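Hi team, as promised in this morning's meeting, here are the two structures we talked about. I've kept the exact order from the run log so nobody has to guess. The first one is mostly here for context; it's the second one we should focus on when we meet again. Sequence first, then the predicted structure tokens.
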Amino acid sequence: MSLNVDSFLNSLAKAPIKPVYLIAGAEALLVQEAADALRQCLREQGYSERIVIDADAGGFDWNDLHQHGASMSLFASLRLLDLRLPTGKPGKEGAQALLEFCQAPPPDTVLLVTCQDWSNKHGGKWSEAIEKQGELVVAWPVKPGEIGYWISRRLSAKGIKADAEALQILSARVEGNLLAANQEIDKLAMQGMQGPVTAAQMQQWVADSSRFDVFKLIDACYDRDFSRASRILLGLRAEGEQVPALVPMVGKELLNLAYYARIQEESRRAQSAMQADKLWQAKQAQMLRMLDHGSCRLFEDLCRQLADVDRMSKGRLGGDAWVALERVLAQWAEIKSRSCVSVCA
């Protein structure tokens, strides 16, 4: 059975070292923190040599994994093979290589596989073999109704206790993006914030530092105002913002729209689901207006297009990431009626 990140981190110090670990999920921050904690634990136990293997690099040969496993360590008796598999899909050759590794793990070696994408469709015999021989850790997305609690715990770990209204302000500021939330919390801690924090203090400390803000970009799409969204996107680019930082925040919004659109289409109970997830009233109204026009099919297609934007921004797919991102925003912001689903066909 797979572990969530919290369970993994809580058991890491006292659990025996396994020969192989798979840490996967779309929540990049949680995947990174779980992997960093494992790396630190291994260093403390003498795994001083680390070999990074990028399975997404051009010309990658899965035989490299076998060769690294079979070769003797040059610098230490204990070593870590750090395999990056961003898509979570090793392909037929990669799946076979991982299966063979798990069937006969080399001595004094730990294999860590990290993936920036994961769902029930990603698994297979290779991940089952890892789970049987080692540990499978999945960073499932934090649900909209849980983000406030998640932020509260992070603040408490830094010695900051926000009241309910202050917590809502910070939650609204980051819009469910864990990386953005963690950055804001770190900024508060670096400013020396300790103890109770009021809504007024939070409003002052978490004020937008940029004229063009990604949340304004998202609001413009909700308002179906593409010309404004395009100007904001241009401003973000001019101020040095990078596409990989924008994609998770836009993607989170589109994923939520697809999720609630499916509920609306199946049962007409999207608002009840939003209330159960504890979305604030303004966000409910904003999303419900959008659901009156866009379909689940459309939002899911925009999510797939956004995944291509992310790959473009990281050099894994040809194309201009900024142009592709603007195209996604145009389709979102210019929805006129449910007939717009034809663009997804």
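And here is the second protein, the one for discussion:
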Amino acid sequence: MSIQEFNTLWLYRIVHIDNLAYLLKHGMYNKNHAQADANYITIGDSILIQQRSEYPVGINPPNGLLGDYVPFYFGPLSPMLYNIATGYRAVTKRAQEDIIYICCSVKSIIDNCEQWCFTDGHAKNAITTFYNNLDLKHVDIQLTGQRYWNNTEDDFDRMRKKQAEFLVKSHVPPNCIKNIVVYNAKSEEKVNNLVKEFKGDINIHVNPNKRFYY
């Protein structure tokens, strides 16, 4: 992948819709940051989130622990969203209309954030490799955008690779947020009102091509 293609690539972070007002005003902080939202609604696997707080990032720079970073996926429809939508693996089940995608371009992250890295699969996996350059040849970009990610007889590593991550250390400023994807018209209205109040230059999309929600 060329640097030009890298710069036009989009990154996706799923969050609870009630976190949006704070994110639009202050940006995204890692969960243990002194300026993180005290009322932040956590989604996903609480045990995994705690484990990530103690799991080392496998490259220096930027070094540190996964809990020091704001994580993004390279594509929609992550396995974790499936767990959230279904309550699978004891994850707290939530309505998909309450889950939104915060979308940032790789270029905006690199231009505004000094410390970052990315992985070729789920960051908390022993065989995953970390990278800190502008070469994404190790990420299966085509797979990260696919709807179906189960392992197959031809590829027993699809689920890990689907969850490749782009990790930003400490903080992502609000001006990096360029697009927000929502589930339906009800969510769109709520997000649109917040965007008008805090930051008016963000595009809002309702589940484009029906490829962002289960």
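Starting points for discussion:
The chain has eight helices and ten strands.
Helices lie at 3-7, 20-26, 46-52, 79-86, 106-112, 141-144, 158-162, 185-198.
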